[in-house]
Amino acid sequence: MGITSSLHARFAHLWDEIMKFGAVGAAAFVIDAGGFNLLMSHGLNHKPLTAKAVSMSVAATFAYFANRHWTWRDRTRSGLGREYLLFFVFNLIGFAIAEGCLAISEYGMHQHSVLARNISANVIGTILGTMFRFWSYRKWVFVEADDEQRDEEAAKASIV
Predict the structure, then answer these.
(1) Residues 74-90: what's their mean pLDDT?
(2) How many domains does the chain have?
(3) 111 lies in which domain range?
(4) C-alpha separations of 135 from 87, 140, 149, 154, 157 in Å
(5) Within 13 Å and on the Cβ side, how many CA atoms surround 151?
């Protein structure tokens, strides 16, 4: 009983972050996949990498603000410029993962159907990119306050 409750307490906060990150990711996925398919059907059907770049950029901007103000709202704010720059860099890496999956399917495997493009970019690429993003955002973008800073903030809160 003690071990179970200890594990639950230890991982409850992480589980909460995963669930919120997942909800934000699901909304961003709808923006990304919907935008990708809209662009593919309205003039960019011969430029799938460009369509993916545009749809992913819009989705990433939404995801930054949703994650900052909901998923990791309790974490230290290290400045909009720093956070957004790192978020952008890690999104570019996640973008490269999705684009790489699409490029392998499109040019390496010569799969040009709408279904193949969606599976490679919006399923495989999204899953791999999402795993990378969660890890990198937690580690470098939305940082936890160190113990000394937390103690200082707790002391200030107890005075009020």
Answers:
(1) 89
(2) 1
(3) 2-159
(4) 12, 9, 23, 27, 30
(5) 3
